[in-house]
Amino acid sequence: MEDNWRLGLHLMPPEGWLNDPNGLCWYEGEYHVFFQYSPDDVNGGLKHWGHYKSKELLNWEFTGIPLRAEEPYEKDGAYSGSAFVEDGVMHLFYTGNVKEEGDYDYITAGRGANEIHAIYTPEGEVISKECVLTNADYPEYYTCHVRDPKIWKEKDTYYMVLGGRDRDDIGKVLVYASSNLKDWTFLQDICSKEPFGYMWECPDYFEVGGVKLLSISPQGIETAGHDYENVYQSGFYKLSGSIIGRYALQEFTEWDHGFDFYAPQTFSDDKGRRILVGWMGIPDADYTNPTTRRGWQHGLTIPRVLTEKGGVIYQKPVEELKELRTGSVVIENQKTIFFDIAELLVQNQEDQGFTVIIADGMNICYWPKEHCVTLEFTDAALGSGRRIRHCNIESCKDMQIFLDRSAVEIYINHGEKVMTSRYYPTEDKRSVKLQGSQCVATLWNLKPMSM
Ligand code: FRU
After folding, report:
1. Structure confidence at residue 232 (pLDDT)
2. Residue 402 beta carbon below 6 angstroms from any ligand 1 atom
3. 320 vs 56, 303, 324, 342, CA distance in Å?
4. What is the rounded distance in angstroms from the CA atom of residue 92 to the CA atom of residue 85?
5. Is 137 helix (H, G, I), strand (E, B) or coil?
6. Using one digit for the tens of pLDDT, what is the confidence trace for 355-403?
7. DSSP letter at 381?
């Protein structure tokens, strides 16, 4: 039987489990997307790095598992990390996870966190793995939870950020420097004024429009009104000053307000775009993904270009997706139409309330008085345990919605805010209906990417 939940706009595992995007880069004329991959266990077992590549972000080739956890220093997983390209060489940095035998809590003891440097050859092989940092190299006030290296270069120096949990259960980012990618020296750690969660995973540091951003995925944040509704968060701080000197972090902004988003990473391509890809999933959620019954779980988000305007960071789906458009139709108020994969644009210049109903049970509503967009499942099976998420917004002038076979991404006001979620319709063709007489809505049918 055809699996009508297989995705057409999102990278997904051929089979088994996928989590974080890893090693994102543009290298020798191609985009490379590695990802945390457990092919044999749909619920996530031993993690390796799977790999896709593409020339234009639309036709993807799955090349297999170039990076396998097979050495003693990574025996319990080749955990997340990044790529750094220089002089035609793709360097990979990742965390080798080791769990020692014994009666340990695996937080303060019993876990090895080895930062490993390797090379990905033009032939697609991972060679010359070398351990460049081990637990002994982290400040003694850290637990064994230190991981997810991201590398960049300024002047002649390479820098690395790592996510960590200290022994007071405060999430922090560790900053290291090196002159040769091999010998690394601890410079300082970065934390918020008030503790913000017990662990910061998957750090990333980069600039958008001259604004310095520190992206993290913190764990241990309580829900506050419409903020932080998921079990774990992902977002960024604007950083003023210097990440290697005196710095200040401004307020934390969530990357995404949907149910399924975590552990994003960014890279820049040959066009100078800063592109973000997230895991379209989250660990330890109380909702599920029935794709497990069909032998696979999770996907990655659409690549999103980051820009800055007036201090606001925007996320826009890459332009390349327009190539997938086949025909368009105008959607009239209260009229139902059917689609396989689609892009829907709702223009709402009058700033009036409206609702988009997908598959008779996933409602996307804009509430102008409440200054809020909600994503709510009225059909329990469709949401598989997901109920409602909120996104505060001053006004909603337009909304671009990507409707994949079992995933939705909602871009509000040209990507000022985004909401990403899975949904599990039973029909092969899904319905969409607009309620909102003031809006103009256009739907493009999209053909799937090739994978
Ligand atoms: C985030 C994460 C990373 C880790 C990886 C293991 O989802 O927990 O911190 O490296 O997943 O798969």
Report:
1. 98
2. no
3. 7, 10, 8, 15
4. 9
5. helix
6. 999 999 999 999 999 999 999 999 999 999 999 999 999 999 999 999 9
7. H
**Secondary structure string (H, E, C) spanning 291-341:** HHHHCEECEECCCEEEEEECCEEEEEECHHHHHHEEEEEEECCCCEEEECC
Q: In this structure, what token pair is assigned to residue 233?
A: 């968060």
Task: Please compute, for residue 297, the number of CA atoms within 13 A of its CA located in the half-sphere on the CB side.
Answer: 24
- Give me the torsion for CA of 439, 440, 443, 444, rounded to 10°: -140
Rounded Cα–Cα distance for residues 388 and 390 (Å): 7
Ligand 1 near 260 CB (within 6 A): no
Q: Is 20 a catalytic residue?
A: yes
306 Cα to the center of ligand 1, angstroms = 23
Evaluate whether 367 touches 415 at the Cβ level (below 8 Å): no
CA distance 207 to 218: 20
Percent of the residues in the chain that have a pLDDT greater than 90, as a whole number = 99
Question: Is any atom of ligand 1 closer than 6 Å to the C-beta of 115?
Answer: no
Atom of ligand 1 nearest to the CA of 81: 10
Residue 101 is which amino acid? Answer: E
Q: Which domains does the chain have, with CATH numbers?
A: 16-317 (2.115.10.20), 322-446 (2.60.120.560)
Q: Is the dihedral of CA 222, 292, 340, 320 positive or negative?
A: positive
> Measured between alpha carbons, how far apart are the two ends of the chain, in Å?
19
pLDDT tens digits along 202-242: 999 999 999 999 999 999 999 999 999 999 999 999 999 99
Q: Is the pTM of this model over 0.85?
A: yes
Question: Please, are residues 118 and 130 in contact by the beta-carbon 8 Å criterion?
Answer: yes
Pair 443, 344: CB distance under 8 Å: yes
Which element (helix H / strand E) includes 380? helix 380-383
